[in-house]
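Hi V.,

You were right to ask for the full record rather than a summary. Here it is.
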Amino acid sequence: MSETRSIVRDGRIYAISNVVNRAAGLALLPVFTHVLSPAEFGLYAIVQATIDVLSVLCGLGLTGAMNRFYLEYPDDAAMRDRVISTVLLMVLGVAVMAFALSWPLAAPLARWVLGGEENASLCVIALTTLGCIALFEVECAYAVVRKQVGLYFALSCAKALGLIGCNVVFVVVLRMGVAGVLLATAVAMGAVAGVTLVALLRRTGIHFVPALARRLLRFGAPLVPSALGSSALGLVERYYLNSAAGAVAVGLYSLASRLASLLQMFIAAPFSQTYSVRRVETLVKGEDQAVYDRILLLFVLTMSLGSFALSIFGSDLIAAVAPGSYAHAVQLVPVLGLCTILASINFNLELGIHYSKRTWALPVCTAATLAASLPLNWWLSLNYGALGTALALVGVNVVRILTTLVMNARVGSREVRLDWPRAVAIMSATLIAALVWLELQLPALHPAWMLAKAMVVAGVATAIVMSPLLGRAARADLLGVWRHSPLGATS
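Predicted structure:
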């Protein structure tokens, strides 16, 4: 089986798993809104946002470190087991430390985040949950690096079912409010992570190699400020947009961002989960990278066509989930879709830096990106509102890609490449086509027009694939995947 078909095959399973991962949150949203008051739901949102930030610190970048060092030993199964076991034991140690510190840290954290110590018990549960989340993330990364898509799917299903079941008990039946939501997360994640931890350590054996642990920390530590800096970008753009144009503009921008994030869930994340492992693995072995350069171009094509389709059907999606006051959010979807594409390209270009283990370069890239985001968001949001914020994000992503390319050329791997002329042409063609189509302002949820939109998407996709924009070799790879797909086999 070719690498392209293998990535597509595994990517489908990862895509389904990612949807299952999100299913619990979607299924529980109406439960939370009916059981919790708006004030309680807001309190939960603040605590959850705090958990998201602290979980980055708790993970110590060990997920990325485990992936890189596991692939360092392609012919040494025993050493690979030591890498896995050492990482698991390190994260377990962090989880135990978080639990031990949960009581003494709860009161000051509640004062700082929630404005008073009366909610300190919520912080105790939240801090306890951190270790469980960190363990679960490492276990999912283990499934990815071992190419065990079945295990990844099983973990996703277990997490979703556990969260739904525990929330029904603690929130619906016992009526424990916000504490019940957090306790449900702690119990569900703890159970899944604990059972999986025992199973993995039984397979690998219990090994802790201090010298290896130090190397893992040296690799992973720079990933923490990089991840935190990336999270800060969203805060920066919403702060300036709210100051310049108000909460309504933030609401429209946030809805359009949610739509654009579908590209990440259904295309970018599944692709990266398969592509990143295979690319670093072949870099370690010194294999030819030409096929992976073509696969990256095909990824850009898929993301661009996905963004075009999302823009075309954006008005229908918004009309289905939101009132008419949100309709103008569709105008932002093409630009934010482009931002998602650029961010995904950057992630895959960073693999060269991961391969060289010079991860100190990633915080440098993040710092340059944050420095660019401040003036861009201030000026563009002030003058163009939500559209200006979206354009600022385009500029931010371009700065990040340029910085990554420079750092990759200096300290990473020059073998990680992208056919930029073709990629830029494809992204530009789909963006322009989407902007032109949105000018028509067609009615939403009209069956005839929805059929016409589907035909337009198919026509644009066919035109780009058959044009010189793609290139003969990449087109042959794509047609090979099509012929071996269920649709291609029946056509």
